[in-house]
Queue: 2 jobs
Job 1
Amino acid sequence: MNTYPEPAVTFVRGEGSRLYDADGRAYLDFLGGLAVTSLGHAHPAVADALCEQARTLLHVSNLYGTTVGPEVAATLDRLIGDGAPGGGRVFFCNSGAEANECAFKLARRWAGPGRHVVVSAYGSFHGRTLTTLHATGQPEKHEPFQPLPEGFRHVAWNDAAALEKAATGEEVAAVILEAVQGEGGVNPASAEYFQAVRRICDERGLLFIVDEVQTGLGRTGRWFGFQHFDVQPDVVTMAKALGNGVPIGACWATEDAAAAFRPGDHATTFGGQPLATSAARAVLRVMQEEDVPSRAVAAGARLRKGLEAIPAVADVRGLGLLLAARLEGVDAKDAAARALEAGLVVNPVSPTALRFAPSLLVSDDEVDEALAIIGEVLA
Ligand code: PLP
């Protein structure tokens, strides 16, 4: 359907940080399928896991037990606890929007009748289903689809006082925030903001949901973005990097919050099936072996420093390997199109900023090569 503009390039193959078109031309991928292919393209461990699982068991439905999902859930719980058990439970689904839908339903169930409002931030992005679209704090995206499901309130980003004011009333159940607003332009939250939100949620008995769909699993330099801020959320949603390209999402919640769901309250046909979870198991194994958060810190620092040295770059924002370069006197869309022609995939996250979300296994040479292309394009 007519939901995306006509693509400029069609890719047929990928390997590590490289993509190839049908003519065999190579491109350096510094977008990572929108922060999805965190281990690069065609990672052998993920490919092997998929092939082996495809020959073993693809799907049985959630009416029966399988062995891989619980293993992945336990690993996610430990990563959320930063090495110690996180004390939570996991619902598997197929995308980021579905993970957030799960979080919203859980919040309503947990809070009880009459308490259903979720507060989110302007500039946020939480998905494209009707409910997650309303959670998304970008009113211009709402307009063609009104009326949207009721129950969302939007407040200024990174402004604890505004949130404190908006999160009042018996009807409020939860707050949802990203650690770094990704689609909104790569805008990190401050530690003080997240800590204030935690306090407000504690004082008022609200669930603090952190949407880690774009920031999760090492990209920002910690396993999860909230870990930069010394707070513990009640619910964490993730997707994108979890399958390195295989569709899978997950909603983690503390034991206390998760206990609000009863059998029959929420379900999915495909979520948690062995094929997707075996990909996630392989992804998480490699991520831990390679210590991807540390790699994101090191490669992110190199990329940031190189970008800051380019004259047309006004400043660089973001964390780890989720960065945006604000451009001066250059249209970002134009710059991204020219970069693509020059063999580099980047994304204009706003009219004035380019987003970088390469593989977390990107090499120093690849970072330098990307910087040389960007420097030349902007010059
Ligand atoms: N939440 C955040 C923070 C995202 O960046 C995205 C997608 O970009 C989503 C949710 C929606 O995820 P999906 O497209 O997998 O539904």
Job 2
Amino acid sequence: MAVKINENYLLLKSNYIFAEIAQRIENYQTEHPQANIIKMGIGDVTKPLANAIIREFHNAVNEMSVNDTFHGYGPEQGYEFLINEIIKNDYKPRGIQLNESEVFISDGAKCDTGNIQEIFSLDNKVAVTDPVYPVYVDSNVMAGRTGPMSDDGRYQNLIYLPCTEENEFIPKLPSSNVDLIYLCYPNNPTGTTLNKEQLREWVDYAIDNKSIILFDAAYEAYIQEKNIPHSIYEINGAKEVAVEFRSFSKNAGFTGTRCAYTIVPEEIMGYDAQGQTHPLNYLWNRRQTTKFNGVSYPVQKAAMAVYSSEGKNEIKESISYYIKNSAIIRESLKSIGLNVYGGVNSPYIWIKTPKNMNSWDFFDLLLDKAYIVGTPGVGFGPSGEGYLRLTSFNTLENTKEAMNRISNLSF
Ligand code: PLP
């Protein structure tokens, strides 16, 4: 007998979208070595870590070299010093009470949003907004929850909640019962948000249907407008039905440093086949203590500095910088008649392609005529066809230069 593979992996789309984009850029640059390409595709920050963070990072690295302050394995769930700062700064001021045992520090929201599905049965019906951060879909494909993809680009057993111009990017509640619902707000890729009333509908749906919402708030720090919830727990009852994912990647530049956290409230329950309830907090704790050995001590110390007053100020400045870029992109593109969405509470701007071009054609046009790289909307799901995403994670100069180049094109 030969080793058998997990054949669900064969159901995945062949190329992760960013690999495809990287390939196209490489090919284009080889053929056009003079082209000064501005990359506005990948959602990665460009500003370095703040001074307050780097200082703590260095101090903690030095501690590791001294007998008395050396740290070996830490708690799998994260150090109390960081957990307490999270509760005190990110939740208490919004009237949300959390226990230390409800916060799980990790090395990324990507891992957590990808891994969380492991604690749920394969029978669950899963719903995703469409377009969507691909990790939610692909991790369920790998687990075997979705079945194969149909010709229309949709996995057969996944429920898609289209978010398009037609519904102003506000997903409609599912018409059939779903068990797990992935929501991400502010949204990647559309950059749009739900206000409290709109999010409340989802929490009420989950309560009524005994569903669970997996709420990804990786871009929470970009929220500028009032009445946009920073945490799903601002909505009454959400602690019984929602897991929340947060990350230091986009607020504090930890994309290469790696630190994030997930909130699994004690009250949230799942059911076994006999209808008995089981706390998800117990299951996630069990999963993490078995498969994860914690984030490094220096990284958690660095993350703690995010909550120092100096850290807070420096981070606020970086976010404002990116948000100003977002505004420049929005206004420039609007002024040449394009339909643009997002970018107000988000580093992402979602553009409707002109003349009903498809996403990849518009991608190629921007690359070829303006040397600008975006992300084709269709890479985020079938409802992303006909859109393209730009990000504000760039220098102000590059952002302005990119907008000048696009403004000189005629569509
Ligand atoms: N969630 C969303 C919606 C994202 O867009 C990203 C990264 O782009 C992540 C999670 C990943 O976050 P992390 O860097 O913490 O793994």
